[in-house]
């Protein structure tokens, strides 16, 4: 990993893209059964980074994104949920993407579901103290969050899959740039 | 990535992906089913009796009970029978005997009212939706 200006610029660009994806999603009000249900559009940017730049960059950008989102648009109070969700999901996605048995679809699904489960665990203290029962958490919220994680994971994988196929690895890209137009 | 170059159209889904989706879905459905069963447990029907609005007895609706309810001044009786989700007043010494004529009630929300003895027998519970809503 070389810290040249091009690399830094690319990381910054992708971080901005991840923030924008999450921000755009925030602007579209989707009022489904639970507040936790969303597509997690930023995750297709993270998936792209994971496959095209590496796990370390993906983790840095993912965690920075949650912080920027929390301080700029939502509230630092929700940081614990988004940060923990992003951290666990990127660790699991990295592990699965290394294993080679999974395609981007499996990786994305695992990321979405693990993100949701982590957020539920982080929120469970608050939810239990505000009247929800443990059986509600386990037999109502958890399955819904699992299914929404699968759906969001597939949705993001479709986008990330296209991106990963269209935009090759960086070193291949420079070679291509020399011999082709654009 | 050379192996991906020719497969722009093909989906890269592998067996492990489908397996993962299946395992997660089955887990979710399993949890939902457990929730359904639990809700069924919570939504047990209860037979409750109120005299002058004060609760005087409470039994599960699937119990086998024959109980005599005395009015507060001990002048009148109603014999309430609960027999496997069927609830009725078997006999009473009130004028009119409307509570006996009311016959059998079985569903949540139904009630038998004995106005002379100011007795209300009601089947309650079974609202599984409420359990979900909060």
What does this structure look like?
The complex is a heterodimer of chains A (182) and B (134). With 182 residues, chain A is an all-alpha fold. Chain A has a single domain, classed as Arp2/3 complex 21 kDa subunit ARPC3, CATH 1.10.1760.20. Helix content of chain A is 78%, strand content 0%. The mean pLDDT of chain A is 86. In chain B, strands 2-1-7-6 form a four-stranded antiparallel β-sheet, with no helix packed on it. The longest helix of chain B has 28 residues, at 15-42.
**Can you summarize the main beta sheet of chain B?**
4 strands, antiparallel
Give the terminus-to-terminus CA distance of chain B.
51 Å
Total number of beta strands of chain B:
7
Rg calc of chain A: 17 Å
Quickly give the CATH architecture of chain A: Orthogonal Bundle
Number of helices of chain A: 7
Q: Major β-sheet of chain A, in short?
A: none
Number of DSSP strands of chain A? Answer: 0
**Fraction of residues in β-strands of chain B:** 25-35%
- Helix residue percentage of chain B: 25-40%
Strand content of chain A: under 5%
CATH architectural name of the largest domain in chain B: Sandwich
Provide a count of the helices of chain B.
4
Low-confidence segments of chain A: none
- Provide the succession of SSEs of chain B: HHEEEEEHEEH
CATH fold group of chain A: Arp2/3 complex 21 kDa subunit ARPC3
Helix proportion of residues of chain A, in percent?
Answer: over 70%
Shape of chain A: globular
Shape of chain B: rod-shaped
Briefly say what this structure is.
Chain A has seven helices and no strands. Chain A is mainly α.
